[in-house]
Amino acid sequence: MHWRIKGTVQKVLGYVPGGDVLHFHLQRQFGGLQNFRRELESKVEDWTIMAHHLRNAGLVFRGLRGFEIGSGWYPTFPIACYLAGVERLITYDLTRHMRADLTLACVEALEGSLQTIADAAGTDLEGVQARYQQLRKRMQAGEDVQSASDGVIVYRAPADATRTDLPDDSVDVVFSNSVLEHVPGEVITAMYRESMRILAPGGVMFHSVNCGDHYAYVDRKVHQLHYLRFSDAEWKRWNNAFLYQNRLRAHYFVDEAREMGFDIVLDTSTTRPERLAQLQAMNVHPQFAHYAPEQLCITSVDFIARKVA
């Protein structure tokens, strides 16, 4: 599909009544939800990467208090955290997207990933299996994920991650996966400020940011640096309610956390030769001219920022 077609369709759906429902059904038929199992496997892989990074930073899943920004259609990360033995996992979404049918499908499909979850979390497989059996049985009986997890997983939407009702110093980790690239810069700053408030001393933020042009996933004729050709005014034509992209570069997310007072303990941003070659072969809009090419061409970053004890 040509990227402009997708952008136009999503732009229109963002304005018409019931556009969100129609957008979901289009995602099921033609988009990322078309192959549910493949997408779920990708999310499990992302979770295991996060789990390894958190363990390397000294966090232990058993008894962990977590806060997720951006729940999505179904809560893969919160469920995996629950199976790993967290004490509580609160997940916020600005819009209420989570669906009971997809959440149950997620739980049922995770049966094949229990060993992977146990290994990544560094916990015993028997405990993961016991929690899984309880969760699946109760959800198959009609309970929602919060009830079936005995209140360990808490879903709140619509909810604002810049102004939570959580007490000071009440969570050990704040995390997101492929969310911050869809959030305006000033909102990211507000999220970081709120994270600093609710994190316990020594607690961390983990964010995985996919800051490349997402239209490249549907149009093979463009690559992930493609959107740097346009000015903000031009790009506004293609930004929409369902695929807003802030076009902020990887170092921004890390630098903003550092300026907020966090100690950066992980930064995976890497300049890849193929991206640098793509950048050198294209016309970049002058508004990006102040960036070094090595910064401009980075399209993903995982980072951990610790609240100094």
UniProtKB/TrEMBL annotation:
A Pfam family hit: Methyltransf_11
InterPro entries: Methyltransf_11, SAM-dependent_MTases_sf
An MF annotation (GO) of this entry: S-adenosylmethionine-dependent methyltransferase activity
Coiled coil regions, renumbered to chain: 118-145
Record domain Methyltransferase type: where: 154-206
Keywords recorded for this protein, A-Z: Coiled coil, Methyltransferase, Transferase
N-terminal signal peptide: none
One biological process term in Gene Ontology: methylation
Protein name: Methyltransferase domain-containing protein
Annotated organism of origin: Pseudoxanthomonas indica
